Amino acid sequence: MVRASTLLPLLASAAGIFTAEAKKIAGETRHIAGSYIVEFEDSQDSAEFFSHIGSKAETRMNLDYKLFKGASIQFKDLKTAEQEATKLNSLASVKQVWPNRVYSLPKDEVVWTGQAGGVDYIRNVKRQLGNDTFTPHVMTQVEKLRSEGVTGKGIKIGIIDSGVDYTHPALGGCFGGADCLFQFGTDIVGDDYNGDNIPVPDPDPYDGCGGHGTHVSGIIAAQANELGFTGAAPGVTLGMFRVFGCTGGAANDVLIDAYMQAFEAGSNIITASIGGSSGWSEDPWSVAVSRIVEAGVPCTVSAGNDGVVGMFYASTASNGKRVTSIASIDNEVTPLLLTESEFTVDSGDQESFGYAIGEPGEWANVSLPLYTPSFDITEAAQGCETFAADTPDLSGYIVLIRRGTCTFVQKATNAAAAGAKYVLFYNNVSPGATSPATTGVDGILGTGMVTASQGEAWVAALEAGSEISLNMLDPLTAPVSLSYEANTATGGFASSFTTWNPTFEMDIKPQLASPGGNILSTYPIPLGTYAVLSGTSMACPLVAAIFALVSNVRGTLDPATIENLLSATANPQLLNDGTATYSTLAPVMQLGAGIVQAYDAAYATTLLSKSSLAFNDTDNFVDTLNFTITNLGTEEVTYDLGSVGASTGYTFSDSIYPDPFPGVELTDEYATVALSESKVTVAAGEEVTVSVTVTPPALDASRLPVYSGYITLNGTNGDSLSLPYNGAVGSLHDTRVLDIGYLSLSSDPDFNPIGGNGSSFVLPAANSSDTDTTYPVAVVLLAFGSPQVNIKVVPANASADAEGSHIFGSPIFYASRDPYTVAWDGRLADGLLAPAGAYTLRIEALHIFGDAADPAEYDADDSVSFSIRYS
Ligand SMILES: *[C@@H]1O[C@H](CO)[C@@H](O)[C@H](O)[C@H]1NC(C)=O
Ligand SMILES: *[C@@H]1O[C@H](CO)[C@@H](O)[C@H](O)[C@H]1NC(C)=O
Ligand SMILES: *[C@@H]1O[C@H](CO)[C@@H](O)[C@H](O)[C@H]1NC(C)=O
Ligand SMILES: *[C@@H]1O[C@H](CO)[C@@H](O)[C@H](O)[C@H]1NC(C)=O
Ligand SMILES: *[C@@H]1O[C@H](CO)[C@@H](O)[C@H](O)[C@H]1NC(C)=O
Ligand SMILES: *[C@@H]1O[C@H](CO)[C@@H](O)[C@H](O)[C@H]1NC(C)=O
Ligand SMILES: *[C@@H]1O[C@H](CO)[C@@H](O)[C@H](O)[C@H]1NC(C)=O
Ligand SMILES: *[C@@H]1O[C@H](CO)[C@@H](O)[C@H](O)[C@H]1NC(C)=O
Residues 843-869, buried b or exposed e (16+ Cβ, 10 A)? Predict the structure, then answer.
C-alpha cells in the first residue's frame, strides 16, 4: 500500500497538472454519463438485447455493420445505469460493453488563415509554382510520382473529420455528383452536436464553421488553384464522414459509426486526423479501426500533438493494432501569405512589401512616412512604456514597433497617446508575420505586421537617416503574395509537438512520418479560403494520399504490403528538440520509420514481411525476431545487412511521472544487434528469412529506457531499406502507475486535496435539481497507464482489510496516464445509495500486464475520512 505521506513532494508537482496551462496538454478522458457501446455476438439475434433494455435505455445509434454489429445506448436513469450496464454482459447476445468516450477536436496550431472575404481576397497571387515544387511533396517524393502522371486516380479515400466546404473551387465545388471531387459521405452528427448530445444526422457533410476537415481534404486532393499548389493525390475521389459539430468533441459511437459507414461506402483508404490520449489498443474505437484494416482497407490515423507530455503517451485510434500511425515532420519552408503594399526609400523606386493585416485594418489610400520609437532591433519590450516626451506628433506617421513582451493593445495605446492612427508591428521571430488585433484602442485606424527581416531592414534605413514612405494599397483589392521562408531550425526534422510512444504494451507506434508542421491548404470560404496549420492532423492525410499513389503504381491496396514498403523506404531523421539538431537519430517512438519516400516505395522491388520489430520489455523480452526479404525483381539481388542505433530515451528521471519533451534524457547507448547473415543473396522471385537478435543496452532498468534503431539493407538493385525496431529495459509490470488518490471538493476548480479527516457532505437524496451541492470528488493522479482503476468507498469503521464498494463510475478500464476526477453523489456501482456514515475513498490502479483478480497487483491509496448524509 502506498502511503500518502511519502507522496507529498510528488503531489506538489502533480497538483500542477490542474493549472490551466497543463490542462491544455494533459489529455482529458471523458465519458458520457450513462452511455454505453454494446457489441452483439455474431451469431445471436439482437432482439434479446433490445427486449432486455426495453424502455430503460434509448438507442443513440444503431451500429448494424458488417464488421461491427451493436448499438450505442443511453440509460434514462443515470442512477442505475452502471448496474444495468454490468447486467448486459450476461446476455447471450452481448459480446462486449464499453463506456462511451468523447474525443476533442485536435488542437492544431492555426498559423495563418485568409481574411473572411472569400475567394476574391486571394488573387493576383504570384504563381511561383510550375512543376510540383510544393515542399511537402518534394520532401516525400510525391512530386516524382506526380511528374509521371500518378494522381491516385480510381482510388476512393474516406475522410473522418469535421466536414468539408466542398463549395471551395479547389475542392471541386460540389458534393455527390459524378463530376464532384467529393462523391460520397454524410453528416453523421449535425451542426449542433457537441460530443455529449444525441447526433442529428443529415446527408450533407458541409462544414462552414470548423475548418479542420477542409484543410485535411486539400492536403489529399486540392485541385489546381490560385495559390499554385495541389493536394498530393488530386485524382482520387473523396468521401467525407462528418463527426464534429460546430463546437465540442466526437464520441466513440459516432467515430465507430463513421468508420463503418466509410468502409461500407467502399472507401479504399480511410483516414482520420483525430485522437485522444490512451496507450491501449483495446480501446473500442481502435478495435473497430483494426478490424477494417484486417478486412483489407488501410487506415491512417494521426499520432497526436502531445509531444510535450513525453514518452508512453500513445493516442487512440492510432495506437490500434495494424492501424498506421502518422507522426509529423516540420515543413522545410514556412509559407507566408501576405497582403502587398508599396514603399519608397528617399527618392528611390517604388518597392513592394508584404504584411499581415490586423484589426482594425483601414489602410486604404494611406500614404505616410514611417517612424520608429527605437532603432534597437533587439529591444524586447519596445513600445510597452509611454513614448518619450520628445516624440513628434505621430498623427502624420505610420509607427513601426517591434513585437514582444506586452500586448499589441498596450503598444497601440501608447502610440495613440502620441497621436498615432496607424501602427505596423514587426515580428520578433523569424519566419512569418501574424495578424495583430488592437480593436478598441481609441484613435487607431489601421494595424498590421511585417516580417522580422522587413522590419529590421526599415529600421536600419531609418537609423541611417533615410526617409521611408509607405503607400498603402486598399487591402480589399491589393494582391496577396505567397512566399516561403526557409525553416532552418526545425525544417525536415520531427515537429516538437508530435506525440511520443510506444503503447503501454510495447507496440511500436508511430509507423511513419510526413510533413505536418506549417502546411498550406484549403479552408472553408467563410473562414478565409486558405490556411496554414500545424499538427499531426496535417501529416496524416498526406500519407493517406501517398497510399493511393503507391497503390496506383503497384496495383495493390493491401494495407500491410503498402505499410511495409513505406516503412522500409522511409528515411530516419536526426534528433531535433525544437532548437538544436543532434548527431544521433530521432528514436522510433517519436518518428517511426522516418519520413515517407513515396517514389521509392512505389518502385521498390524488395518487399520486407514486416514494418517493424518489437522486442518488448525485459519481462517479455523476445531475443530473436525474424523477417523475410522477398525479391520481386527479375534479377538476383545481394543485400548488405547492418544496423544503426537511434537515440535511447529514459522514460523517468527523478519522478514516477515520465519526463516532458524537451527534457527526456536521451543517450547514444544502443542495443547490440546480431543478424543471422551480414550479406544475403535472394534469387528473383524468391524469399529469404533473416533473424535479428538483440542484446538490450545495459542501462538503469528502474528508469525504463526505451531503445530503438533500424536494420539496414542495401541491395545491389539500388534499394536502400531500413526496418525499425524497439524495446525497453525494465519491467512495465513493475512500474508504479498510481501517484496518489485523494479526496477533493467539486467546488474546488483546482481539485486540491482535503488535508484532514472529518469533512462532511450533505448530498441530495434523489432526483434533486439542486446544483449548489458540493460533492466529494475522488481524484486519481495516474503517473502511468493502468488497465483498470477502481474507486471504492470503505466505511471508516471497517477493518483494515475490508474490500470496499465500487462507487458509480468505477472501474475505469484502460486508463491513460492522465488525472481522473470522479464526483461521488452517494451511489454505488449497483445504483443504490450508500448508507449515511463515515467513509474513506480507496483508489486502486492495476499494474500493466497485471492480474485483475489479485489485490497485490494494484497500487492503492486511501483518502482521509469524510462523512455523508442525505438531505
Ligand atoms: C518542370 O520540370 C522539368 C524537368 O525538371 C523542366 O524541364 C520543366 O521546364 C519544368 N516546367 C516548369 C513549368 O517549370
Ligand atoms: C482610394 O483611392 C482610390 C483612387 O483615388 C479611390 O477610387 C478609392 O475609393 C479610395 N478608397 C478608399 C477606401 O478611400
Ligand atoms: C509484450 O508482451 C506482452 C505479454 O506477453 C504482450 O501482451 C504484448 O502484446 C507484447 N507486446 C508486443 C508489442 O508484442
Ligand atoms: C526464425 O528463423 C529461424 C531460422 O529460420 C527459426 O529457426 C526460428 O524458429 C524462427 N523464429 C521465429 C520466432 O519465427
Ligand atoms: C547502406 O548504405 C548507407 C548509405 O550509403 C550506409 O550508410 C549504410 O552503412 C549501408 N548499410 C550497409 C549494411 O551496408
Ligand atoms: C485520519 O484518520 C486516520 C485513521 O484514524 C489516521 O490514521 C490519519 O492519520 C488521520 N489523518 C489526518 C490527516 O488526521
Ligand atoms: C427519479 O426520476 C425518475 C425518472 O424521471 C423516476 O422514474 C423515479 O421514480 C424518480 N425517483 C424518485 C426517488 O423520485
Ligand atoms: C460501522 O458503523 C455503522 C454505522 O455507522 C454500523 O452499522 C456498522 O455496524 C459499523 N461496522 C463496524 C465493523 O463497526
Answer: bbbbbbbbeeeeeebbbbbbbbbbbbe
812 alpha carbon – ligand 7 mean position (Å): 27
Q: Note whether 238 and 270 are within 8 A (CB).
A: no
> Does the beta carbon of 691 sit less than 6 angstroms from any atom of ligand 4?
yes
**CA proximity to 243, closest of 209, 265, 213, 223:** 213
Q: Taking the CA of residue 255 as centre, how many other CA atoms within 13 Å lie in the half-sphere pointing to its CB?
A: 28
- Report how far ligand 3's centroid is from the alpha carbon of 222 (Å): 41
Distance CA 573, CA 358 (A): 38
In this structure, the residue with its CA closest to atom 8 of ligand 8 is 797
Q: Using one digit for the tens of pLDDT, what is the confidence trace for 290-323?
A: 999 999 999 999 999 999 999 999 999 999 999 9
Q: CA 304, CA 318: separation in Å to the nearest integer?
A: 8
Other beta carbons within 10 angstroms of residue 700's beta carbon come to 11
If you measure from the C-alpha of residue 505 to the centroid of ligand 3, how many angstroms do you get, rounded to a whole number? Answer: 6
Residue 63 exposure: Cα atoms within 13 Å on the Cβ side:
29
Give the tens place of pLDDT for each residue, 441-454: 999 999 999 999 99
Radius of gyration from C-alpha coordinates of the chain: 29
Please, what CATH class does the domain formed by 605-735 belong to? mainly beta
626 Cα–ligand 4 center, Å: 6
Q: Does domain 109-332+491-604 have CATH number 3.90.1150.10?
A: no
Phi first, then psi, for residue 294 (nearest 5°) are -60, -30
- Say yes or no: domain 4-104 is CATH 2.40.240.50: no
Give the residue extent of every domain in the chain.
4-104, 109-332+491-604, 336-482, 605-735, 738-870
CA distance 753 to 759: 12
CA separation for the pair 376, 373 (Å, rounded): 9
Task: Kindly tell me if the per-residue pLDDT of 390 is higher than 50.
Answer: yes
pTM for the full model?
A: 0.88
Find the farthest-apart pair of alpha carbons in the chain and give their distance in angstroms, rounded. Answer: 92
CATH fold for the domain made of 336-482: Glucose Oxidase; domain 1 (3.50.30)
Smallest Cα–Cα separation from 806: which of 86, 27, 72? 86
C-alpha to C-alpha distance for 72 and 254, rounded to whole angstroms? 9
* Ligand 2 contact, 474 CB (< 6 A): yes
- Rounded to whole angstroms, how far apart are CA atoms 268 and 276? 25
Over 630-641, what HEC string results? EECCCCCEEEEE
Contact 555, 574 (CB under 8 A): no
Answer yes or no: same fold for 109-332+491-604 and 738-870.
no
Q: What does DSSP say about strands 333-345 and 480-486: parallel, antiparallel, or unpaired?
A: antiparallel
Secondary structure percentages of the chain, helix, strand, coil, to 5: 20, 35, 45
Q: Which fold has domain 738-870?
A: Immunoglobulin-like (2.60.40)
